[in-house]
Design a protein that fits this description.
Blueprint (H helix, E strand, L loop, with lengths): L6 H8 L4 E2 L1 E7 L2 E7 L2 E5 L4 E7 L3 H9 L1 E6 L5 H8 L11 E3 L5 E3 L4 E13 L2 E13 L5 E4 L2 E4 L15
Antiparallel strand pairs: 1-11, 2-3, 2-6, 4-5, 5-10, 6-9, 7-8, 9-10, 11-12
């Protein structure tokens, strides 16, 4: 056991949290790199800050920390194959993937629901990961359906037969 918590119970608990899927991208030495990340969240609206948790052994994490700038690409439901490809260890191939470049050179992947261009403000060690806090310097969105990860599987949100207004609190 780690810290008195059963590791399997801990992992099982975390699988109950549905999460959107992102690909963190970075440009380094004329090359581009990326990795799938589900540990992404808003930190602040003023200033606009986000966080992403990156595994310390990740090559992309090392490049993000060296560059100090990166992009977060929020995946659409039709981009499951990209999520799978960028979740694999090793070199990520961007050939055949339609992208444009952010001001820092990081790839902004076509077809995503949102793109956030970020500059690192802080890095907090978090066990086997680093929590990267970054200021959002530019962002864009488009309409679509998000790709979700829940219980070790990619999923798509279904429209409720009686949807509530986004501003309405649950009863």
């Amino acid at each position: 056991m780690v810290s008195g918590v059963d590791p399997e119970s801990y992992k099982s608990s975390l699988r109950k949290f549905a999460s959107g899927i992102t690909i963190v991208t970075v440009a380094s030495n004329g090359d581009v790199h990326g990795m799938t990340a589900t540990s992404f969240a808003s930190v602040s609206l003023d200033p606009p800050l986000i966080l992403v948790s990156l595994e310390k052994r990740s090559h992309t994490r090392n490049l993000v920390l060296a560059s100090r700038s990166f992009a977060v690409n929020v995946l659409d439901a039709n981009q499951e194959s990209l999520a799978r490809d960028f979740a694999k260890r090793g070199e990520k191939i961007f050939s055949g993937i339609e992208c444009r470049r952010s001001a820092s050179g990081a790839p902004l992947i076509a077809g995503c629901l949102a793109w956030l261009e970020c500059d690192i403000t802080d890095v907090v060690p978090g066990g086997d990961h680093d929590v990267v806090i970054a200021k959002v310097v530019a962002s864009e969105t488009r309409d679509g359906v998000p790709l979700i990860y829940y219980e070790r599987a990619y999923r798509v949100l279904e429209q409720s037969a009686n949807p509530q207004s986004p501003a309405a609190p649950p009863e």
